[in-house]
Amino acid sequence: MTLGWQISFMRTISLDLRERILASYDREGTREEIAQRFRVSLGMVKKLLQQRRRTGEIGPGHHRSGRKPRILPAHHRQMRTLLGQKPDLTLIELRAAVGLDCTLPAVHYALQKIGLTYKKRHSGLVSRTGRTSQKRAGSGGDARPASTRLD
Fold first, then answer.
1. What is the torsion angle, in degrees rounded to the nearest 10, for the CA atoms of residue 105, residue 107, residue 113 and residue 114?
2. Dist CA 49 CA 134 (whole Å)
C-alpha cells in the first residue's frame, strides 16, 4: 500500500467532504475504513470527530488561528474619546489612560488605523533650518597635508 493518498493533509478539505466523512462514520465503519474510503489520513478523521464533539462545528478553524489583537474596537472608541477631550496626550499617556499592555508602535498603528493623529502642532512660527556648511564638500581629496600631526 502506498502512502500517496495521505499527502492531502496539507490542504483544507471541503465542507462537503467533511459532511460525507462524518455521515459515513455515523452510519457504519471504523475510523480506519473511513480514512481509506475517502482517501484522507486517519488523523484527519480523528480530528474531525474530535472537533465535532468539542465544538459542534465541522468547518475549518483557520479564523481562530494567529495572534489575537491586544487593541480591540472598544479600545479604539476609548482612544477616540480621550483624544477628543485632551488632544495633546502623548502615546505613553494614552496607553496608560486606556490601560493597554502593548508597545508604543502598536498604539501608533492603532491610531493610524482609526484615522487619528497624535502629532503636536504648535501655533508658533515654523522654524527654518539653515544651511549647516558654507560650501559643498570636495571630491574626496582634502586640501590639508597628509600628516595631521601637530608639533
1. -160
2. 78
Tell me, rounded to whole angstroms, the distance of Cα 85 from its chain centroid: 30
Cell numbers 502642532: residue: 121
What letter represents residue 54's amino acid?
Answer: R
> DSSP for 108-122?
HHHHHHTT-------
Radius of gyration in angstroms for the set of CA atoms belonging to the chain, rounded to a whole number:
32
Return per-residue pLDDT of the chain as tens, 151 residues: 444 444 444 578 888 999 999 999 999 889 999 999 999 999 999 999 999 999 888 888 776 677 888 899 999 999 999 998 998 889 999 999 999 999 999 999 999 999 886 565 555 555 566 666 666 655 655 555 555 556 5
